[in-house]
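BUG-192 | component: ligand-complex export | severity: low

The export step for guanosine-5'-monophosphate jobs runs without errors, but we want the raw record kept on the ticket for reference. Input record follows.
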Amino acid sequence: MQALNEAIKQYGRGLGRDMVKVDFFLNHRIDTKLMAAMAQELADHFGHLSPDMILTVEASGIALAVMTAHALGGIPMVFAKKSATFVQSDDMAYAPVYSFTHKTQNVIRVDRRYIEKGARVLIIDDFLADGQAAEGMIMLCKELGAEVVGVGIGIEKGFMPGGRKLREAGVNLKSLAVVQSVKDGIITLEEG
Ligand code: 5GP
């Protein structure tokens, strides 16, 4: 997606050999016009599959997920939580996820009532790296008897295995931008 590629080139920074820092527009300060355009692109791509709801994981997936849900006509958006709360229901579904950014093992959870059996679920996240977050969400849907109609991603790191694993598993994956490499602070994008 051209506007996203341009924002990555203008404001993105590479950290180390594998981290992409885009928090000026994507996941700390949010460029809401760009985010709405990204959401529309995902809605155009997945709309014909008639998703009933969107699933993401807190926190940085939420902005793109809620805008995509709105662009799909106002379907509900559920986000999996990474920690337990006092008010959480005692009927939760769980899946293990290793956090790429925090380098910690997490358990993500959703209230079983919020993803109904047979629901057509579109999974959305800001980044795809090793694919752990997406796989955890797919696991949650499977356990709840819901159908994953696709996975929509803001930025895929094409040099990491997540995208290949999902495509090989037959998942309908759409990434709006693909990073080819990160080196000396420079982000190189796959274009065309
Ligand atoms: P995965 O589970 O695919 O390894 O990583 C996806 C999750 O890690 C996303 O939810 C995203 O929040 C975070 N993430 C992975 N790589 C990056 C990155 O380069 N930059 C940022 N900001 N977040 C990332």
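Assignee comment: Attached the raw record above. The mean pLDDT is 96.
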